[in-house]
Amino acid sequence: MKNQATIRHEVHAVGTGLHSGKLVHMTLRPAPPNTGIVFVRTDLHGAYVKASVEAIDFEMLQLATTLRNGDVVVQTTEHLLSALFSANVDNVIVEIDGPEVPIMDGSSAPFLVLLDEAGIKRQPVPAKVLKIVKPFSFEAGGKKVWVTPSGDFRVSYEIRFDHPLIQRQRKTMNVHSREYEEQVAPARTFGFLRDLDYLKSKGLIQGGSMDNAIVLDADRILNESLRLKDEFVSHKILDMIGDLAVAGVRFQGHFHGYKAGHEMHARFLRALLAAEDCYVVVQDGATLPAAFAPAGDVPVAV
Q1: Binding-site residue set for Zn(2+)
Q2: What does the record give as the active site (predicted)?
Q3: How far apart, in whole angstroms, are the C-alpha atoms of residue 107 and residue 103?
Q4: Beta bridge partners of 190
Q5: Which of 84, 119, 185, 263 shows the smallest number of beta carbons within 10 Å?
Q6: What is the pLDDT of residues 279-289, one digit of tens each?
């Protein structure tokens, strides 16, 4: 059984908030065992949000994942959490001086660079692993997320878009492998030119640009090129890993997504944790009581 981990040294980054368009200063600091991932708003005198299923703001999941603790909000957490989760980093303090994690280049690759700079330190406490023992699925509006037992942590995803450069893409990968670093982390978020004016009129993507997203018109991309031939589905895998990370445990199971997104990922995760016959939580070879409060489904549109 592997132990928990944190980072060895604090590291810093500066970037733009995707939706606010404002400059964000971020610091990652080491944290003791069993801390989890805690976001601290330094602009709000240290108010914080711990990454957890209970912290998900289901009213703000259209284009990113938002976590909330009362009036304290942290948006666009998924790319950083995806990098931390893939590297098995369980305990970190994330300090930011605004409401968003910086978008960087729209992928998780810059966060892996930060982790490489910080170093990873194993801690003398075993990690908790949620092991899937029975298949579980969640379906709504023609979208589906499901999980099956597996010997490791895998993600498979399929997307379908009526666009000549996307159409149908499928991919499967082992999360804790070099494949994540090489074939998932570099994948950027993407959007369609036809939607930009509407989204900006709603106060969204104020910091979006071709420096941090792939932009498509009716039949081509406006950026110079793609980083990966399957960059679109690879980014959906990146997002799913980051959205699952809020559970606060490691996983052993094969997770699948079909035409899903942040909202479906979150609804699935809440429903899965309430289905206690479908998994066990293991630490140092011992089975623990399920520590998740049954939450049921959240009645929101998908």
Answers
A1: 79, 235, 239
A2: 262 (proton donor)
A3: 8
A4: 214
A5: 119
A6: 999 997 778 77
As a whole number of angstroms, the distance between CA 87 and CA 175 comes to: 9
CA count, 13 A, side-chain hemisphere, 47: 14
Judged by phi (left if over 0) then psi (alpha if -120 to 50, else beta), residue 64 lies in beta
Torsion of CA 191, 195, 200, 206, to 10 degrees: 10
Res. 186: pLDDT tops 70: yes
What's the whole-number mean pLDDT along residues 87-93?
A: 98
| Distances from the Cα of 161 to the Cα of 215, 232, 288, angstroms | 14, 10, 42
User: Cα separation of 191 and 223, whole Å?
Assistant: 12
Q: Amino acid identity of 286? A: A
Eight-class DSSP state of 287: E
- Residue 103's alpha-carbon distances to 66, 152, 191, in angstroms, are 14, 29, 14
Residue with tokens 């030119």: 193
pLDDT digits (tens, 9 = 90+) for 162-179: 888 898 999 999 999 899
Indicate if 25 belongs to the active site.
no
Q: Which residues are annotated as a binding site?
A: 79, 235, 239
Q: In a 3-state reduction of DSSP, which class is residue 271? A: helix
Question: Phi/psi zone of residue 38: left (φ > 0), alpha (ψ -120 to 50 degrees), beta?
Answer: beta
Let me know the angle formed at the C-alpha of 226 by 18 and 81, rounded to the nearest 5 degrees: 40
Q: How far apart are CA 103 and CA 18, in angstroms?
A: 6
Choosing from 19, 254, 256, 262, which is the catalytic residue?
262
Mean pLDDT of 123-139: 98
Neighbours of 24 (CB within 10 A): 23
Q: Is residue 73 a contact partner of residue 49, using CB atoms and an 8 Å limit? A: yes
